[in-house]
Amino acid sequence: MTGSWDGRVALVTGAGAGIGRGVVELLVGRGAVVVGVDRDGGALQDVAGAVAGAPGRLEPAVASVTDPARLAAVAEEIRAGHGGVDAVVCAAGIQRYGSVDTTDPTTYAEVMDVNVGGAFNTCRVGVPLLRARGGGAVVLVSSAQAYASQRAVAAYTASKAALLGLVRAMAVDHAREGIRVNAVCPGSVDTPMLRWAAERFSGGRPAEDVVAEWGRAHPLGRVARPREIAEAVEFLLSERASFITGADLKVDGGLTAGLAAALPKD
Fold first, then answer.
1. Which residues of 191-209 are buried (b: 16+ CB within 10 A; e: fewer)?
2. In this predicted structure, what is the pLDDT of residue 187?
3. If DSSP codes are grouped into helix, strand and coil, which group holds residue 248?
4. Which of 77, 107, 121, 192 has the most other CB atoms within 10 Å of its CB?
């Protein structure tokens, strides 16, 4: 049974699309006030329209997670309007391709700045907001590629593994303040970023076929829906996970459970 979020406030980055949007829709649907951060104001307005009439509401905040000054201004707006937050979700992220010798330093810096720096910047303003409400929970969106990597995603894999270290450090630092910090690590999820990648590697095939092929690599035989990842995020934010901190929850359809090497056929 899921709990109510009536009267609770959440800060969610990457709120305009993909997993972040899924988290916004779920929490607003359960009564939360969600301050949704995204650099794409139009995408935020689309989400606001989608959740209109839900028990909670979305308060859009156009900002880049790579801009600490703008995030600090958003935090001040939250403090003035709500006093603080009960939950922080860092879902903003980008994907870039290349091995360590084919990825230029500018691209590497971009990936780390958004994926790791963005989470750091958000939590830097988010932790005091949680403290102001007497504690709460943080979830960082990492990836199955924090454990096992595809080829030619060196910067992305490094960034997602780094998030797990950040989770552990924050969990230790803030446990006595009543702040829990965990990560979800999805496999392939049907998001605009995945569709972009499918188009990139389609070789002329329909992107839908590529997504289905990637889905078959998961033991459950398909890619995830954003809502499924959002459910895991909500669990870690909720009191149902009250003794869980410093953990990373795989939500990967069994992707990292198996070995690629197959037994010979009879």
1. bebbeebbeeeeeeeebee
2. 97
3. strand
4. 121
pLDDT, averaged per 10 consecutive residues of the chain (266 residues), comes to 82 98 98 98 98 98 98 98 98 97 98 98 98 98 97 97 98 98 98 90 89 94 97 98 98 93 73
Tokens of 126: 């988010």
Nearest to 230 by CA among 134, 141, 135: 141
Dist CA 28 CA 132 (whole Å): 22
Q: Is the domain 9-187+224-249 a CATH 3.40.50.11270 member?
A: no
Give the residue among 153, 156, 158, 15 at the shortest CA–CA distance from 91.
15
Burial tier of 73 (Cβ tally within 10 Å: 0-12, 13-18, 19+): middle
Query: pTM of this prediction?
Result: 0.96
Query: What are the residue ranges spanned by the domains of the chain?
Result: 9-187+224-249
Known catalytic membership, residue 147: no
Measured distance CA(87)–CA(8) in Å, rounded:
8
Q: How many CB atoms lie within 10 A of CB 18?
A: 23
Q: Which of 97, 108, 147, 156 is catalytic?
A: 156
Inter-CA distances, 203 with 96, 192, 198, 200, 210, Å = 18, 18, 9, 8, 9
Cα three-residue angle 193-212-14, rounded to 5 degrees: 20
Helix (H) or strand (E) holding 197: helix 192-200
* DSSP 3-state of 58: strand
